[in-house]
Amino acid sequence: MKFPRVVLVRQRSDVPALQDMAAVVKQEIAGLNLAVTAGARIAIAVGSRGIANHALIVRAVAEELQRLGAEPFIVPAMGSHGGATAEGQVMVLATLGITAESIGVPIRSSLEVVRIGTTESGIPVLIDKIAMEADGIVLVHRVKAHTDFIGPVESGLMKLITIGLGNHQGAQTAHRFAVKRGFNNVIPVVARYVLQTAPVLFGLGIVENFYHETAIIKAAIAADIEKSEQHLLQAAKQMMAVIPFATLDVVIVQQIGKQISGTGMDTNVVGRIYNAAEPEAEFPQYTRIVALDLADDSYGNAVGIGMADLTTRRLVAKIDFKATAINCLTGAAPEKGRVPIALESDKEAIAAALMICGPTAPEAARLVWIKNTLELEHFYLSEALLPELAGNPKLAVLSALAELPFDGDGNLVWPAATMN
User: Fold this and answer.
1) Where do the LarA-like N-terminal domain residues begin and end (predicted)?
2) Phi, psi of 123 (to 5 degrees)
3) How many alpha carbons lie under 13 Å from residue 343 in its C-beta half-sphere?
4) Cα–Cα distance list, 112 to 44, 214, 233, 311 (Å)
5) What is the DSSP letter of 125?
6) DSSP letter assigned to residue 309
7) Distance between CA atoms of residues 387 and 390, nearest Å
8) Does 362 sit behind a cis peptide bond, omega within 30 degrees of 0 on the bond before it?
9) Which three-class secondary structure state does DSSP give residue 188?
């Protein structure tokens, strides 16, 4: 088979970026004029996402709470992640650089929840027991487009409350109700109940730009969290990274992983949702997706592999099927855990995708090769797409046309020169 020749391109975006995140965090919290009782036990709810400057931001929150006289501690707020065990969730935090030593406060992890009530629409409201017993709760999370639905609030502080602080049981309950009602009628509804009932002091919303840099940090008291998140979500969507083509024959994803996206690969980038609770997006439309490898910091959780059409034996060999099953079943999305046809090498998997992407000759296919769905500043595109770059100031060609760089085993290695 003749494979398409490719060029390396750089995608540019004029977006803001913060320089001194710790100072901004402390300034935002100070601006709330909180009245904190000396010695108050404050639970800082921290999720499991790979957020830029995550540990630095959490440490700044802890230091500011200590300055106010409180005794903060960290509570993992990550639903079923970490294998749905207290120890596993502490390990996930450690992979993010968040430990008792690095932050300077204890970590108290438990999957135990308490039911604090039921919404008017009949949804049980569950929350981490340790957090609920604290004198106050502080939420720290990134605000971004959700991978499964579109709404006024999507993936952010409201989701952290409903799914994250709900631990395994609460996350499972929320997703089960969402299967029939949709996420828009579950996540914000449960979160509002918690904000009215639990001792939430404030939320700290983080927005990242196109380059996965911290662009905005905004604090809001409990009563203003939902409105604040709505504004942050719009800013996040304006700065989010995407593949700048609405239709493609083949997309090669070098690696998927839980720290890259909650769904392994961001559905907003690949154009597939695969969730019974929500309709599929109209665009982008990518005929075949090939997932080549699983990131090491995913620890075997291969959620999202089901969105690929083809994969490799080496990726499948890294799958922890129990961790993947727990995540997919908790999210009521078994579709995302289905294992596609796995071939011996990257070359075989890509050849198969080119063979079944339509009547186009393989060498003329509209193909893009990305490192992952989070890092999209650099990527490769095929010769057929070059005419569409004309007049686009955001895309610059960095190399001459060349063959896909398969090694002796028929695998692709993402070139170090393109690392962000």
Assistant:
1) 32-179
2) -95, 125
3) 19
4) 17, 32, 31, 37
5) E
6) S
7) 6
8) no
9) helix
Predicted local confidence at residue 420, as pLDDT = 43
DSSP classification of residue 5: P
Count of C-beta atoms within a 10 Å radius of residue 109: 22
pLDDT confidence of residue 149: 87
365-378 in b/e form (b: 16+ CB < 10 A) is bbbbbbbbbbbbbb
The pTM (predicted TM-score) of the whole model is: 0.85
3 secondary structure, DSSP code: P
Pick the CATH number of 21-239 from 3.30.870.10, 3.40.50.11440, 3.60.70.12, 3.40.50.2300: 3.40.50.11440
Cβ–Cβ < 8 Å for 252, 214? no
Q: Report the distance separating Cα 157 and Cα 139, nearest Å.
A: 7
Question: Residue 417 has what pLDDT?
Answer: 58
- Residue among 16, 17, 8 nearest 395 (CA): 8
In this structure, what DSSP letter does residue 2 have?
P
- Predicted pLDDT of residue 381: 97
Q: What does the domain layout of the chain look like in residue ranges?
A: 21-239, 242-418
CB under 8 Å to 391, separation ≥6 — which residues?
none
Average pLDDT per block of 10 residues along the chain, 420 residues long: 96 92 97 95 93 96 97 95 90 94 97 97 98 98 91 96 96 94 95 98 96 96 98 95 96 94 92 86 94 94 97 98 92 94 98 97 97 95 95 92 96 73
β-partners of residue 216 are: 207
Structure tokens at 295: 């990131």
**CA atoms of 84 and 90, how far apart (whole Å):** 11
Distance CA 72, CA 61 (A): 9
For 64-87, the DSSP string reads HHHHTT-EEEEEE--TTTGGGSHH
Q: What's the chain's Rg over C-alpha atoms?
A: 22
* Phi, psi angles (nearest 5°) of residue 234: -65, -40
Half-sphere exposure of 371 (CA within 13 A, CB side): 18
User: What's the distance, CA 313 to chain centroid?
Assistant: 25
Q: Coil, strand, or helix at residue 175?
A: helix
| Spatial distance between the Cα atoms of 78 and 80, rounded to a whole number of angstroms | 6
3-state class (DSSP) for residue 417 = helix
State the distance between the two ends of the chain, measured CA to CA, in whole angstroms: 32
